[in-house]
Amino acid sequence: MRRHRDVPPASGGRPTRDRSSSELTMESMARASRILLVGILVATALVACGESEPEAIAIVGNGTGYSGLPAALDAGVYEMTFNNGADDPDGPLLIEKGGRTPEEFLADFKPVLEGGPFPDYLTTAVGFPTTPPGGASTVTMTLPAGDYIFLSFFSSDRAPVWAEVAVAGESPEVDDLPDSDATVTALDYGFDVSGIEAGAQTVEFSNNGPTQFHHLVAVRFPNGTAPADAEDMLTTLFTLEEGQAPPEGVVEPEDVFDTGVFSPGTGGAFTATFEAGGTYAFLCFIGDRQGGPPHAIGHGMMKAFTVEA
After folding, report:
1. Whole-angstrom distance, CA of residue 230 vs CA of residue 250
2. In 3D, which of 163, 41, 158, 49 has the Cα closest to residue 95?
3. pTM of the prediction?
4. 211-253, pLDDT tens digit by residue?
5. d(Cα 253, Cα 232) in Å, to the nearest integer?
6. Continuous segment of H or E residues that includes residue 234
7. Cα(69)–Cα(237) distance, integer angstroms
8. Which end of the chain is more exposed for a tag (fewer CB within 10 A), N or C?
9. Domains (range + CATH), the chain
10. Residues 57, 68: contact at Cβ < 8 Å?
């Protein structure tokens, strides 16, 4: 084993002198300083990474109000969990209300529910998927600065439930969301889908607009259905009158999951499970800002695909 190298004699035949203890001490101190500096930089990076973790907020709705929802928040990325304590399905939205009172906003927003135009001041929204009674949904979402109403609509005759939330600060970007296994990007009017595989996955859904609000509704066709056939069957189903049976050979798909509504420049991440060999279709049923039919019907906004086995 090589231990050390002998010091060769200098000219004149005398060996070079050993370094003094003071020189060795100075070098050791310099080396220690460099190590300390690296340690400080690494520790600072670790702290910064920790600070970038989304803050968790747990909200409970009971059909008449909410608990756990802050009245004021900093703009940023949040891991939000909605627990539905009502006896109706609920998928709350955080919608910008443009300085209006909740009562004024609800009056302006009512036509939207009937296919009418959006209020001009309504430019930002993020939301939760439809959550069954007693269920919970978790979405890691971007929350831009704005003057919001946290709003629930119900399929029954129950009145809407709302709370006001003020969000201030620098608005986040979709890129600020944690890394996901797969991505689905909504465009006006289509979906870009990447990375979906069999099993449970974290899926990032974002709206790249540039103008329209979008969400995602996932349905599943029987194994062996070609994606093109799935889209043709959906188009046929959209032409049927209410209660009309589909033609022979046209299969009604199974509902799988949905997302909340997201305005352009926003997004959220959630967990979903896909089965190998399954044929799925993503659709958007939000209407245009100026009013009109749902995007899947009026603009053919759908994307069918088969998950590889």
Report:
1. 9
2. 163
3. 0.82
4. 999 999 999 999 999 999 999 999 999 999 999 999 999 999 9
5. 12
6. helix 227-238
7. 40
8. N
9. 54-171 (2.60.40.420), 173-309 (2.60.40)
10. yes
